[in-house]
Design brief:
alpha/beta; binds adenosine-5'-diphosphate; globular
């Protein structure tokens, strides 16, 4: 089962991804986590993307697509994956579709979490993970980037009739139940 978890920064993608991972026993692939791990370990990739993440901008499509394709080729992802933070542009979505169709695989569901903007900002400011992009100014940039570059991905998958819109306000378990119901 291949599931995409989608939504603006602070919508709870990472939290719900972890719950899907344990429920369905499929691996989690978070591009944000990959970038942060590379920055922490000061790898060549980490050095390239650090300033971009710090600014709240997007890593170039070619870079992200290559990383995700390399990951998805690994055996551990062949039975399924929970994608979190990818695709984030229509170009990335088109590349993913191509990759999957070229491998006889496909997307089973595109789950989008809906949360009012005010709550998103409060959640990010209160999550206290010490992320360098969790400042009011950077959150504003990230939300703008989301609206401009990422939201069109929703329409891309609406055309394929894959979108499940989930109310992302409530307790973690409530939201997870809504997701399971929608996947049923
Ligand atoms: P959030 O959803 O809270 O913004 P993520 O961990 O998904 O957090 O992403 C953090 C940052 O990593 C993004 O602001 C962006 O700089 C970079 N990033 C993650 N995924 C992608 C992607 N698919 N394309 C481009 N940049 C990405």
């Amino acid at each position: 089962m291949n599931i995409i978890l989608f939504g603006p920064p602070g919508a709870g993608k990472g939290t719900q991804a972890e719950k899907l991972v344990s429920h369905f026993n499929i691996p989690h692939l978070s591009t944000g986590n990959i970038f942060r791990a590379n920055i922490k370990q000061q790898t060549p990739l980490g050095k390239i993307v650090k300033a971009i993440l710090d600014d709240g901008k997007l890593v170039p499509d070619e870079t992200v697509v290559e990383i995700v394709a390399d990951e998805l080729k690994k055996n551990e992802y062949h039975e399924g994956v929970v994608l979190d933070g990818f695709p984030r542009t229509v170009k990335q979505a088109e590349s993913l579709d191509q990759f999957f169709s070229g491998n006889g695989r496909g997307i089973d569901a595109f789950v989008t979490l809906t949360v009012p903007e005010e709550e998103l900002i409060n959640r990010i400011l209160n999550r206290g993970q010490g992320r360098s992009d969790d400042t009011p100014e950077k959150i504003k940039t990230r939300l703008q980037v989301y609206h401009d570059e990422t939201e069109p991905v929703l329409n891309h998958y609406k055309k394929q009739d894959l979108v499940k819109e989930i109310d992302g306000v409530g307790s973690v378990d409530e939201i997870f139940s809504r997701i399971l119901e929608a996947l049923d």
